[in-house]
Amino acid sequence: AQDQFTNKKLTSINFGLPIIYCIVNNHFGMTGRMLGEVTGVDYLARRGAGFDNDNMNAEVVKDNIAFIDEETSEKTGIKVETPWDVEGADVLLIHNAGEILAWPENIGAFTTIFTAAGLDWTMSSEALAYDNINYGLFYDDFQYSRVVLKHAAVAKELGVKRIVLGECGHATKALMVIADRVLTGDLNIPRESCFPLLRDLVKTKTLKLDPSRNNFPVTLHDPCNLTRLMGIVMPQREVLREICPQFREMTPHGVNNYCCGGGSGFAIHSGHNFADWRYKISGRKKVSQILGAFQDQIEPETKKYVCAPCSNCKGQIRDLIANYDLWNGAGITYGGLVELIVNAMVDVKPNFIDWDEIV
């Protein structure tokens, strides 16, 4: 195949590629070839061969999730087992596959909630359908569309009623608002963020919850793609107000909140001068916001939780906490929304969020 990364005959749909390559080459030391290896033809070839963005094929993913199920069952006391390829299910849940390796407790929390709520749901063992990341969104409409069409085709083949996306701002944007331009006719399958579903489960008392289990200071980071771009602002707050007695907002918050400092995929890059930018410039404002939200209880003896319901944002906030030593210095840790829900579930063993395990 012709190398599209050196081909000067760019089609109109790729008009932005030369500018993007210039930026990443001049400022971050990444050549067009390197960018392509991460997000382009090679990336799609891996996925076409059955591998996801973390180079895991279906069997590896299923083995990993089986292990997560086992660990989660032991930790919560609720027997869970992820359903695979269930035809006609109400919900096809698609995670950011990076969570499997980086934050398995997030995967386990979703499974625990869906099991306890008695939802009719499934995951797909197709490589493109157990991973909701779409790197084509960064630079190429053609590559983006191929991934979106595969997501929709798998959902249609299974006959599910809707696709629900896990805690990932990038994926929610990619498969919801932008995919409206690609998915038409019978491929326009209902697609939604997990937040309204979680809100409904909490507000309707489908889950038995004890807010006193979350009686520690909690603040909420608003992922840019979910809030400022898509306007998904209230469902996650309605959940937190129900289950976290000491919930407090950052200033500003909602659609006016500041980026975590790792937006547009910066959070997953540490080479060249990415880390310097994330820690010393873009991330400092987020650290200031977090400290401001907890200023009344800033002592490290009081354990505090930053709810960051987005995989990319969690990676950035994790690194900021480590860089600024916020755990030892101020007792601040981080995690997603579903972990807080499970931590409050009456039928779950206490301390799903285990402060003693945080280092």
Largest sheet: 4 strands, parallel
- How many angstroms does the end-to-end distance come to? 48 Å
The whole-angstrom Rg is: 20 Å
Number of domains: 3
Helix-strand sequence = HHHHEHHEHHEHEHEHHEHEHHEH
**Strand ordering within the main sheet:** 2-1-3-4
**Low-confidence region ranges:** 1-25
Number of helical segments with 4 or more residues: 16
**What is the correct CATH architecture of the largest domain?**
3-Layer(aba) Sandwich
Summarize the structure.
This protein is α/β, with parallel strands linked by helices and 359 residues long. The chain has helices at 17-28, 32-39, 41-48, 58-76, 98-102, 104-117, 136-139, 141-158, 169-175, 194-203, 225-229, 234-243, 274-293, 311-323, 326-330, 337-344, and strands spanning 91-94, 121-122, 162-165, 191-193, 218-220, 247-248, 304-307, 332-335.
